[in-house]
Each structure stands twice: as structure tokens, then as C-alpha cells.
Amino acid sequence: MTTEFSLIEKLAARHSLSAEEYESLLTLRSSEGAARLRSLADRVRREVYGTDIYVRGLIEVSSFCKNDCLYCGIRKSNKNAERYRLSPEEILACADEGYDLGFRTFVLQGGEDPWFTDGRLMPLVSALKERHPDCAVTLSMGERSRESYRLLKEAGADRYLLRHETADKAHYEKLHPSKMSFDNRMRCLSDLRDLGYQVGAGFMVGSPFQTNASLAQDLKFLETFRPDMVGIGPFIPHKDTPFGDRPAGSYELTLYLLSVIRLMLPHVLLPATTALGTIHPMGREAGILAGANVVMPNLSPVSVRKKYALYDNKICTGDESAQCKSCLAARMRSIGFTVVTNRGDVKK
Ligand code: 5AD
Ligand code: FES
After folding, report:
1. I want to staple 28 with a disulfide (CB 3.0 to 4.6 A). Which of 4, 47, 163, 279 is the partner?
2. Which CATH number do you get for residue 187?
3. Which ligand is nearest to the CA of 71?
4. What are 129-177's pLDDT values in tens digits?
5. Which of 66, 72, 140 is the best mutation target for the ligand 2 pocket, counting ligand atoms within 8 Å of the beta carbon and taking the most?
6. Distance of CA 6 from the midpoint of ligand 1 (Å)
7. What Cα–Cα distance (Å) separates residue 311 from each residue in 177, 211, 314?
8. Within-domain flag for 288
9. CB neighbours of 71 closer than 8 A, spacing ≥ 6?
10. What are the tens digits of pLDDT across the range 166-204?
11. CB-ligand 1 contact for 72 (6 Å cutoff)
């Protein structure tokens, strides 16, 4: 008989599971199973990364977005969203401050803002690499052409984060306007991989219309695509979106999935996300204990933090970068982990 425990042991023995088996694992999910998964994932993470926690300095460069994802607070149709865009000088200043605080990876994240043309982004990426040659530059600026990704790589970008959002095409179409396409998103991910980026994929847990079957497809996708990074966090409603009255994703299921992903991809860079810290005061600590090994403190100027609101009640919007970093370092120390000062590349 297939039990949750037999599936967990199979996963821990580094066997791949079928989509049906992933779905059963999620259907059979219990708190005892979660505890078993957590201890196995914790062991695997310690074997690969010890108790080191990698930090990424997140710079939220723009809240302008030409897209209209139904779940996202900065979607184009949200007329209540306050829009801002950091200038290249402001972005460089955030990175300089981050460097002094011990960050060796900068993540430039933003909505799909047409202002950030290749002609503007390339010199920015080059300037970042010139000022801080020992740092990695990660971009998280959405879907672009293969040529754009190529130029940005040439300018010095090392990594790219683009969550696939859901590996189930029909589900993808329920979360996005018809102008956006699942196939293009997958094309972006394969181009990025092809061009030599370290690539991050990922999805929200508990997004509207998500089922265990669609989550099983997400796991199967991660197992075959094998991204270097996987960002997952609970869906959290934003009041000014069509999904404003939907329930948030499950905290326990997010932790369970973090452990599953760690076992499936032992070397993966796995953040305990801000969204996880938003639905539970100890969410990021619990995420690390479930198998994550990355945290992403905010380096954006405090004046814009509240405006980069993908969902409601986001944490850390009032804290200076230095406070954010030291708060997270202290949180990690409290559970026996150490925030380290290095680029935090994936171990192969
Ligand atoms: N709740 C949680 N995560 C969200 N994201 C966007 N909107 C929300 C929301 N309401 C996630 C998406 C996106 C990433 C930058 O933030 O997965 O890829
Ligand atoms: Fe801006 Fe989707 S609405 S990234």
C-alpha cells in the first residue's frame, strides 16, 4: 500500500516520483509526515550547505508594470497602486550601502516596466559589476526577449529569477490575462538556462484554482527542469486585485513543499521568502528549519517600500536596510544558523 511515509522514503532515497505519486503525497499530507520530511530535508541541507545561510540584497527597482496578473498588487489595472521607479543612481547607492553591510548578491526586482530597456539596464548591470566585482547580480524583471537576456548576460548579469507561477497551463490561464502566455514564460526559462544564467523558477502556494494535481505538476516540472533556485511562498491576497477576497495559501503546506523540494534538489538555493514571513511571525525561521538556505532582506529605500506591494501586510516595510539585515541575522542565529558574507553560488 502506498502511504505518505513510503513516498517520503522514496523521495529521500533520491528516486523520482511520478506526478500521481506527488499528488498522493500532497493528498496524504499529515503533521507526522511533515515532521519526518523536515528532519530529512534538514539533514540534506546540512550536508550540502552546513549551517550557512546566504543573503541576497533585494532592490525593488520599479512598481510600474505593463502586465495584469490577477493576483498581483502592482498589476496595471490597480489604479490605487502608487507607482515609483528608482533611478540608476539610486539603485547603485542601494547596492553600495548593501555592500558595506556584507551583501555580495544584489537582486534587481521590479514589475515589467518598459522604461527599463536594454539600453538602460545594460550600463546599470555593468556599473554594478564594475563597482563590486566580487558580487553577483541577479535580475528579476520578468519576461523579455532572448536577445535582451543575451545582452544583459553579456553586460554581466549572473542570475535570473522568473517564477513559472504554475506548470499547469490551464491553471496559468486562470491566473493571467489572455495576453500573457504560458508558452512564452517557459520559453523565457529555457532561454535563460541556455544563455548560461543561474536560473530561478518557482510558484505561489495556494493561488486561486490551484489543486494538488497542479502542484504535482509544479514538482514534476522542478524535478525535470532542475533550476538552480526555487522561490516559493504562500499566495497572499491583495485587496485591490480580482483575488482580493480569496484565502491566503497554507503555511503548513508551504513548509511541507520546501522540504519536498530540498529532498528532490539537494543543492538548490531555496529562500525562506518574505511572503512566508508575512503569514506567520516565525515563518522565515520555520522555512529554514524545513530545508531553505537563503533569505532576502530588503535594500530598497524605506520611502518606496510600501509602494512595492504585491500583496497586503508585507513585512519589513518600515525598516532601514541595516535593520533588516541585522534582524534577519539575529533570527537565523536564534535557530543555530549563520548568515555568511559571500556570493552564495549554487553548489554543484
Ligand atoms: N501573493 C504572494 N506572492 C505573490 N507574487 C505576486 N503576487 C503575489 C501575491 N498576491 C509573487 C509571484 C511573483 C513574485 C515576484 O511574487 O510569484 O513571481
Ligand atoms: Fe506585474 Fe504580473 S502584474 S508582474
Report:
1. 4
2. 3.20.20.70
3. 1
4. 999 999 999 999 999 999 999 999 999 999 999 999 999 999 999 999 9
5. 72
6. 33
7. 18, 21, 7
8. yes
9. 175, 204, 207, 208, 235, 237, 238, 241, 243, 311
10. 999 999 999 999 999 999 999 999 999 999 999 999 999
11. yes
